[in-house]
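For the sake of transparency, this paper describes our internal protein records without simplification. Because each token names a local backbone shape, the row as a whole describes the fold. One such record is reproduced below, unchanged from the form in which we store it:
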Amino acid sequence: MSEVVSPESLAEEPLAGEVAVDPATGRPAGRAQAVVLILASCLGVLGAVLLAPVLPAIEDAFAGTAGVQALTPVVLTAPALVIGLTAPFAGRVVDRIGRKRLLVAALVVYAVVGTAPLWLPSLPLIVASRVLVGLTEAVIMTCCTTLLADYFHGSQRERYFGLQVVSTTVAATLFFGIGGALGSHSWRTPFWLYLVSLPLAVAAARLIWQPAPHRSGPVLTLPALPWRQLAAPVVTSLVGGLVFYALIVELSFKLDDVGVDSTGAIGAVSAIGSLGTAIGALSFSRLAPRGPAVTVPLAFAVSGVGLVGLGLAPNVPVIVLCAVVTGLGNGLLLPSLLTWALGSLSFEQRGRGTGWWTAAVFLGQFVCPLVVLGLSGAIGGLGSALVVLGVVAVLAAVVVRSSRQARVVAPATGA
């Protein structure tokens, strides 16, 4: 369906080489804009990892609440589920009313609802606040990724997509440690960290600009998304989200299976796996010119081989090696999928396309532990479940490689 929008959102953004130009000042997008958008993108992982260390304390604090054992994990997983369900709608709003003001407003609201559990008296109210966190995260992540695609083109876009994955991966590792440290004081203390969005809101208000020039004219319609081109990368990204988060979610349990119960040792191995992810993401800009027909299958294949090895690993050294291999594939996977998804979209379609891509990845994140749990019970343990996920990733590589669609969509060049 088409949707009514203002004509300024349909204007073609002026370019200076591989970057867009601020229509008000004539200044090209640069590092300052990229830093703000990449840092704001890291807020999406805050809800996924920050509270993991304090979930037992939250359960103890509300032990008298009916259904506490079911509600407590939802405190952690609700934002990811809400992002998955609402990001496409956030994309529509982004395309309709513009990127900047929506991003600034969402960053401010994020701080309010994120810190709400500091004073909320009941677990159901805290869960409700986490749903609102997911809504603001959906808007923030959709705006940030869309603006990166608006501002930067060609190799510049590929570079910043890679850095976005690196930054969110490093942030996830840091937030896990910070959450544990703050949680040692009180289970409520980690919620103070949500205030970090306020300085980002100020920075976005000062440095971010709406890419399209504003001019008056008749109301136009928002063109429909090209689903013949977009459906394949979106569906593949759902599998990609499942594969990507398997290492993050299950590595500690695999280490526990081989007798490692030290939180320090688990953290060290997780950090090494994150290093592999960072290296994989940084390699994306070098591989991106080969196109999604190469980068997407390569990423799935490397992640799949790593997961199969991780499932079969008998000891810690092999687990570390396989975690690094899986991380290398994971680092390449998300920017490759994003480039494929956005490669066929014009400016006025990009927000909705980014919303659908974000939804697919976060739904993959949400179902990942459920899929692994189901497979573990059905086929005999975590190791077998990881092997199955690895085989699925390799099969995804084969399917994408043989798909003509991935070949005809060139790397995104700023439609």
